[in-house]
Write a structure and sequence with these properties.
Layout (H helix, E strand, L loop, with lengths): L14 H11 L2 H8 L3 H15 L4 E4 L3 E4 L1 H25 L7 E8 H18 L3 E8 L12 E4 L8 E15 L1 H7 L12 E4 L13 H4 L4 E5 L3 H8 L5 E5 H4 L6 E3 L6 E10 L6 H16 L1 H4 L10
Parallel strand pairs: 3-4, 3-5, 7-8, 7-9
Antiparallel strand pairs: 1-2, 5-11, 6-9, 6-10, 6-11
Helix pairs in contact: 1-2, 1-3, 1-4, 2-3, 5-10
InterPro entries: LysR-type_TF_proteobact-type, LysR_HTH_N, LysR_subst-bd, WH-like_DNA-bd_sf, WH_DNA-bd_sf
Pfam family, one: HTH_1
Family: Belongs to the LysR transcriptional regulatory family.
Length: 314
Amino acid sequence: MAGASGAEPRPDWDDLRYFLEVARTQRVGAAAQRLGVDHTTVSRRVRALEQALGTLLFDKSRNAGFALTPEGQQLLVHAEQMETALQSACEQVAGLGQTLSGHVRIGSTEAFGTYFVTPVLSRFQREYPAIDFDVLPVPRFVSLSQREADLAITIERPQLGPYVCSKLCDYRLQLYATPGYLAQYGDVSTFADLTGRRFISYVDELAFSNELRYLEDIVPGCNVVLRSTSVIAQYQAALQGEALAVLPCFMAAQDPRLVPLLVDDVVVARSFWIYCHEELRTLKRITVLWDYLRDAAQRNDALLQGKAGQLLLT
């Protein structure tokens, strides 16, 4: 939107809504669907914003979609802060009795995001159908400082930053094998039975946290025949019945094709932490989701500790 004669052009702040959706989806079509408008409207509003600011906000590619330029990344930070402030103000003015709505992006460790967070969120959406989610179950840390997610669940407590953080839950990992493996290579009833066995583990130099380097502590000098940065890949490898793997109980205990071994002797204890930016913690939908995830974790403590084999959603 042009300003008065002789003045620099001023952006139409409503264009920021279109910018945010394109930045999040990286596709004009997907952004248009979310906004309930035609894709040409989204393209036009983004172009208008770029013209008003005098800079390119996206690199457009048929294959990669709309990728943010450095200038776009800078604008995204400010636009999201403005969005958060507006949402918080609207929630306070409208009161808490209104139906919760909006968008939340959750980053999580790969296995927990896949086998716990995703099914729990599906049940959450039955109660709050107007809230939609992006779930990022990735084998790395998600950066809240770069606004990769609104809420993060990780295996290390963040040490610095303007975050609200608390322990979500404790969980355990155990040594697993298939019944077929035990039939072919022999039972494992003592540590001595692990001598000469084949194992599955992480790629040590690519593990994103020291909390993942536990196999060497359990079986020093063990023979690792398959390594992966993905715990889900390790899980799939263990199912083939050719090697042993240390896996999270919340994932492996739900699969009857796997049997825990040395359950009283091989137990790796870890914790999950949940955190978000301070300003986001005031949003009602974040507060409700935060509490819902904590309740779900408490309700499933037996699964997290390897004492149950089913995820409880109610």
